[in-house]
Amino acid sequence: MALDSKIPAGSIDQKWTNYKNKINLVNPANKRNLDIIVVGTGLAGGSASATLAELGYNVKAFCFQDSPRRAHSIAAQGGINAAKNYMGDGDSVFRLFYDTVKGGDYRAREANVYRLAEVSTNIIDQCVAQGVPLAREYGGLLDNRSFGGTLVSRTFYAKGQTGQQLLLGAYSAMNRQIARGKIKMYARHEMLELVVIDGKARGIIARNLMTGAIERHSAHAVVIASGGYGNVFFLSTNAMGSNVTAAWKVHKKGAYFANPCYTQIHPTCIPVSGDHQSKLTLMSESLRNDGRIWVPKSLEDAKAIREGRKKPTQLSEEERDYYLERRYPAFGNLVPRDIASRAAKERCDAGYGVNKTGEAVYLDFASAIERYGKDQARIRHLDENNKELVLKLGKEVIAAKYGNLFQMYEKIVDENPYETPMMIYPAVHYTMGGVWVDYNLMTTIPGCFAIGEANFSDHGANRLGASALMQGLADGYFVLPYTIGDYLAPDIKLGKIPTDTPEFEEAEKSVRNQLEKFVSNKGTQPVDHFHRRLGKIMWDKVGMARNEKGLNEAIKEIAELREDFYKNVKVPGTLDSFNQELEKAMRVADFLELGELFAKDALHRNESCGGHFREEYQTPDGEALRDDENFAYVAAWEYKGKPADAVLHKEPLVYDNVKLVTRSYK
């Protein structure tokens, strides 16, 4: 099947407007006769459910958590981008579009990115109207701060808990529709299969995680909003329940999976402390606005710090290497995440790491505390040379901006980051790859849509900070409600989709067979045993840096691990009851297939770009070396029974509005 991205004709700034002017519409009376399933209730799924129900559709929303407000979007910290130019610093829709394409290392689809930038301004108005408490300046105007990969301040925020506040806004909008009966909420339900009838997505099979009951649910369209697949690495900043299952089930039913190797390693995470850990904790990128990243200049000092013989505060400015400021003077500590992550790895690999494992660098706020303290002293007509006063005032400013993040760090690490620099190290965070979708956000299965992090569409090979929340809400509030109506218009006379059909019967039987196989397996190892082993293979050979030898080894080892998993996994309990080990077994089974396709995708792409860094393809000074002649395309994989047999389809990326150049932040 040829890939058709369905990008509208016309100039890029008119595509979305022209598209909306010409689409088919469903009138309000007919919307009442159409059902839509939304899988996932984070920012993308929650905003989509609320908006679709507000329009009049009947929505069935599913989440595996006990409440929509526990979706992983709640963990987002630093902010949400929008091209409002409140700071008057030269921002515009085009500049946000350009920064996003450049930040993604020229591997994103222009039309989708421009639309994202275009609707970003509407998101802020929507959220303010909902009562989301975005930060404000003294005069009452909304405040902005900078994030990596930009030279402007366009990030709106709510202290260090932006995701939580935005999700509460979407959740409130959902609750209004739940109360009206327009959203039927299925919490503690997990989608385990997509039902396709006559080539169209017409429902799902879900398992009630409290009772174990397997249920059939029908609809005229299915929307996948289930987030990303970072937990294929086992250790990531994602919630432990985050998984690829919904996206992988639609992939196995015919939806192409695009660019799985594009995974983001976030530079500012609390370092791994030992083998006992089950997840990692993110420290918001917003901290890089004021924190300066450094390691000791001398190997002797680094060793002394690792061994506890020296403290970082004992090193003078001359003894510190602010390596991002040294290597990238134009952007400094605000280079994009992939560049900051690789730079930290390079310093630690060279022996300059500062924690006991040698895998950490410092994020230091001493300069910012002093700078803000002096500003406040001058504003208040106090003595700016009084060091004690300056420190006190400066800490108050930092606490107002980042206080909950500092508190979280101190609880985990048991060190006061106001007094001692934070220790950070890169960790798996966000997945730019995902289910392939066209301009309408529809997958290669008619009637099956994918939004938010579950799709691949907007970020290319690297996501700029504060763009995930932007994409999730753009898709849910402002894009999908138009595009899904265009698809559903011919279905207004179809009536309810029955669930007593051979397709539903077969799908339910397939799910039941897999569940029964797990609970009856006579293995000896718990599910986490296999997940940890998969994560180690992925991090060691498909992580921040990859090479041909390691990728070939990873593909072989993951296939062998998958075989071992099905032979030797032990899942206690029964199918028809609350059984969290059974939940995990189903998810890890999908990760074990995704992991192999992930490595296969990384192996075929003989270039480095964004979050995909092949050691064989780098410039003399260690930067990513793209191959635009041979790899300026989206790699969309078609399922053919197992990952080894997946078939590659290419969507060429055409750049009419941004010139393809080597990315530089120097």
From TrEMBL:
Q: Where in the cell is it found?
A: Cell membrane
Give the record's keywords alphabetically.
Cell membrane, Electron transport, FAD, Flavoprotein, Membrane, Oxidoreductase, Transport
Q: What is this protein called?
A: succinate dehydrogenase
Q: Which family does it belong to?
A: Belongs to the FAD-dependent oxidoreductase 2 family. FRD/SDH subfamily.
A GO cellular component annotated for this chain's UniProt record is:
plasma membrane
- One short Pfam name that applies is FAD_binding_2
> Which molecular-function annotations from GO does this UniProt entry contain?
electron transfer activity; flavin adenine dinucleotide binding; succinate dehydrogenase (quinone) activity
Report the cofactors: FAD
Q: Which residues are the active-site ones?
A: 337
Instruction: Tell me what organism the protein belongs to.
Output: Flavobacterium aurantiibacter
